[in-house]
Amino acid sequence: MIYNQAFFDKGLSRLGTNALKWQSPDYMAENSVPLWVADMDFPCAEPIRKALLERADHPAYGYTFVGDEDARSLTGFWRRRHGLDFEAKNALMLPSVVTGLRVCVNAMTLPGDGVIIQTPVYGPFFNAVIESGRAVMEAPLIGDEAGRYSMDYAAIERHLQNGARLMILCNPHNPVSRAWSQEELRTLVLLLKRYRARLVSDEIHADFVFAPKRFIPIFSLPETPDNTVFLAAASKTFNIAGLQQSAAICRDEETLRALARTAHRAGAESGNIFALVATRAAYTHCDDWLDALMAYLRINQDVLRDTLAKELPRCIISPMEATFLAWLDLRGYGLSHVEIETRLRKHKVALTSGRFFGHIAGEGFMRVNYGCPRAQLEEGLKRLTAAINEG
Ligand SMILES: Cc1ncc(COP(=O)(O)O)c(C=O)c1O
């Protein structure tokens, strides 16, 4: 299979598959253009499809355990793509990254403890903390005039002084599209260490960092303590989020045992035959698909940047260093958040509301998912432009 521009341009019809992005009754009016939830409208790589078909062809679908080859494909991928070494025994397989977030919060803190998150951030970070009976401590990112965000170490330190026990980092960051630098991460790790607070790094977007930026795995820093956890998945990278498979990785045996115990008690264990088969294939045989995808996404970024510079000059797009999600600041148009949402609905384009990432930090912002065929992106941008300019 050749993964050229035509392959990605063609996209695929997802109607009739209960695709959340296309058919959610809450978000999608009829004939809307979906540029919201973070999966992509491209066919997955051929080895994944083949592996699933082959496995489906064997009519035994009973209980299955996670095998050595599952962890080996994960470690092999991270060594090959990110130059990071960790051992198979350091990985705990879980159903999804959100499961991992919740398991970490429950295993690494006590009820009532404070957990730091950097807003705006992926909405389930809030829920993982609040619904576990822990307290969210927001350390909002600081945005500059160009929409580039940086960490507020002083705010983090204040929370640490007030007893925060854990921080959940989004590396790279959804939605602001930052690929954190080595220096930024080192400063953060040293700060947390000083207060003996622990760190969970959600690295689900690791594979979407655009040159000249580089993805820096939290485990690659010599200063990172062994009891740090990072969460990984093939789901975003290879567009297989509906299969639900992830891993929590930790070098400290005691922490890993605590995570396993917590997951077990919640019945949140990995062992879906198809998820494991697809993930192994993804991690082993699909680098060419991923490289071609990144080249395609980069041109989508140009389309997004050029179109909005021309049609919506008061919109600030955060520099697109990472992910396939663009963070748009629409506050320059002087519309209320509700008014923006209403206009987008009227013009039939579905974006993710900034408020999903924090009510205050996301006010006046929208997130665009540009992981789709170019024609779909262009149509969505046309509608966005009309919604803001025409009302
Ligand atoms: C930062 C981040 N973590 C986790 C997830 C969800 O991962 P999963 O579907 O494995 O729960 C997403 C999805 O958008 C995300 O952006």
- Parts with pLDDT < 50 across at least 5 consecutive residues: none
User: CATH topology of the largest domain, anyone?
Assistant: Aspartate Aminotransferase, domain 2
Shape: globular
CATH class of the largest domain: Alpha Beta
H/E series, N to C? Answer: HHEHHEHEHEEEHEHEEEHHHEEHEEEH
Computed CA radius of gyration, to the nearest angstrom: 21 Å
Attached small molecules: pyridoxal-5'-phosphate
Please identify, by name, the CATH architecture of the largest domain.
3-Layer(aba) Sandwich
Average pLDDT score: 97
Structural class: alpha/beta
Overall number of structural domains? 2
Measured by DSSP, the beta-strand proportion falls in 5-15%
User: Main sheet, how many strands, which sense, barrel?
Assistant: 7 strands, mixed
Q: What is the end-to-end distance?
A: 44 Å
The number of distinct β-strands equals 15
Write out the CATH superfamily name of the largest domain: Type I PLP-dependent aspartate aminotransferase-like (Major domain)
Q: With helices defined by DSSP (H or I, 4 residues minimum), what is the helix count?
A: 13
Strand order of the largest sheet: 2-10-9-8-7-3-4
Helix residue percentage: 25-40%
